[in-house]
Amino acid sequence: MCGIVGYIGENQAAPILLDGLSKLEYRGYDSAGVAVYDGEKIQMVKATGRLKVLEELTQDGAVLPGTSGIGHTRWATHGSPSDANAHPHFNKDQSIVVVHNGIIENYVKLKKKMESRGYQFVSETDTEVIAHMLDYYYNGNPLDTIVKIMHRVEGSYALGILFRDHPDEVYAVRKDSPLIVGAGKEGNFIASDVPAVLKYTRDVYFMENEEIVKLTRDSLTFYNIDEEELEKRPTHIDWDINAAEKGGYEHFMLKEMHEQPGAVSDTLNPRLKENDIVIEELGMTDEEIRSIRKIYIVACGSAYHTGVTAKYVYEGMARIPVEVDLASEFRYRNPIFEDNTLVIIVSQSGETADTLAALREAKAKGVRTLGIVNVVGSSIAREADNVMYTWAGPEIAVATTKAYSTQLIAHYLLAMKFGKVRGTLSDAEFQGMLEDLKQIPEQISLLLSHKENVQRFANRYLAAEHVFFIGRGIDYAISMEGSLKLKEISYIHSEAYAAGELKHGTISLIEEGRLVVAVLTQPSLYKKTLSNVQEVKTRGAFVMAVTNAGNTEVEKVADYVIYLPETNHYFTNSLAIIPLQLFGYYVSIGKGLDVDKPRNLAKSVTVE
Ligand code: AGP
Description:
By secondary structure, the chain is an alpha/beta fold. The chain has 19 helices and 27 strands. 2-deoxy-2-amino glucitol-6-phosphate binds next to helix 10.
């Protein structure tokens, strides 16, 4: 995610802004910038690259005199990393400047309206719309102007704003994206996260949605959207810096698991328009969608596992044959393509060597390619014919969680769109699925709230040597990801098995006390898998079952049951994976392992 800082006080602002941004580097970014009021005008410096570039350009802030300013580290969502797309963004006469963290979901419509009013845009960002709207609605009263924007902008935002003719004030406003206010002895601060201000103060105010704050050198005034003053109480932070970067969570993986509801919403909501799905970046007409004869999904690791799930979803919803390939295999097997094939390349980093090579192999054969990628401007994002971004924000933990969850959402949206256009989904089915999709973020939150139960169960298996995950259909795909999560962060051998395959070999490995995790979310396969659970149970296995709420008969055979909230059977992976992520996480930390940086692993495998 982007990082925002702001300061107004007795001291030079630029060095404080640069220091604050350096404490937000963990959030991931591709460019940075600062703007400072120098007593007459607002000066700005911004550049692509690491903070070091900005520090050199500003001589650690020395070339930007002034005691009030705002700063930003950009994690690109709209528009690739570039100097022009970096924040802050000016209005046309440079009397207003803004930094933004979040996604303006209706920026295309707003941009068109501002262009019709004669505004010219110099960047590809959604944020620049805000700068021009502040200019258009500005009536000399910053608070009034900000409220006008709030009523017109849809999406998530944390904004830091300077108005040149209000030099003794800094403004900020929050909706959905995090924002804190720091009250210091030598000035006041805004920031996306606590680490940016801890060096100066431990007394912070957590902004709530649709709250506005006006900072002066020695005062803080909070308002609601009706411009009424609010009383807010500060929180005294006793975290150390390291804990603060994780938002108070012990590890990045735990933090990122808890970011899944927001990441799923950010990936979903901008593509839901008036009870329909609009995927502007797909680059395919309805005719072209109807002409698709085959889909390949190509990826590595967890991204590949989303493809295994998605095969059932595309084939079920859109009746398009799907082949799922490991990129490291696909790139060398000289694949044979028929006409009207779509190759979907899935990658969080957008830099995985095997996946990039697979993309190039498909393009070399003239096949249409679509990327599902999290890092904006990454190699796969740039080289695929079209790219559909997952807006999970930067993922720091090596074991993917929120990126995986948003990749699933991208697949669901595509499959539903294809099914609707090709007429294989009725309108009633489509609308029902839309309603189920919208519930997923909240349902993930609910499952995360039971994490202590999973932790208690996990602590019984710290000494396990072999664990089996079984399921059928989509449940088999979920088992693959659950097994990888456990393996890669706890170093316990585990294996995902199609439950129907047990009798063809694996069941010989089941012995007294062997843990078997059974996933039973598919109604049409439930009874079959239940009988597989009985098979392993009679051979001494200890069974953890993940199933839909109401399937209480599972308790007759399983030793520990996790129930999932009701959702469409195509979407159950998004819920079932939560307890399995938590299980792997708690086994790993129970063994005292480095859960965020497991041995031998890299976050992005950019070599073969
Ligand atoms: C999953 O937890 C791993 N981090 C790994 O399997 C990862 O999914 C795989 O390396 C693919 O990475 P990518 O999505 O960045 O291409």
